[in-house]
Amino acid sequence: MPGFTSPPNPQLFNAQVWQIVRQIPSGKVLAYGQIGALLPTPTGLTLKDYDTFRARWVGAAMAACPEDVPWWRVVNAQGKISLRPASAEQRARLESEGVQFDDKDRIDLRQYGWNSTPTMLK
């Protein structure tokens, strides 16, 4: 399996990720891998390879997102906030939007997961 460290076109990939995240409504979340699954497989990659890297690439896009992207609405596949310096701020923002955490610091993705299909620009 090739060792892709970034998408073939990082600028395009990041822009697509941010476009999706901007559409997540208040009080809803998506997981990194779910966002990646909403995007087309980048040119030059097999679906298998893309499945391996997509969540990591979405995480990298979120780490570099512009201020108008609601980054706090992106969580990991377990419904948890990934540990990083802004973890407490992310939890506070989600709670202010009505998102509740269980006793294991998880979000119920069935309740708070965004199930709509985002609009993609051409």
CATH architecture: Orthogonal Bundle
What proportion of the residues is helical, as a percent range? 40-55%
The secondary-structure class comes to mainly alpha
Using the coordinates above, name the CATH class.
Mainly Alpha
Q: What order do the helices and strands follow?
A: HEHHEHH
Rg: 14 Å
The overall average pLDDT, rounded, is 92
Task: Give the total of beta strands.
Answer: 2
The biggest sheet, with number of strands, parallel, antiparallel or mixed sense and barrel status, is:
2 strands, parallel
Full CATH superfamily name = Winged helix-like DNA-binding domain superfamily/Winged helix DNA-binding domain
User: Alpha-carbon distance between the termini?
Assistant: 30 Å
Shape: globular
Our count of domains comes out at 1
Unreliable stretches (pLDDT < 50, length at least 5) are: none
Give the spatial strand order of the biggest sheet.
1-2
Task: Note the total helix count.
Answer: 5
CATH fold field value: Arc Repressor Mutant, subunit A
Strand content: under 5%
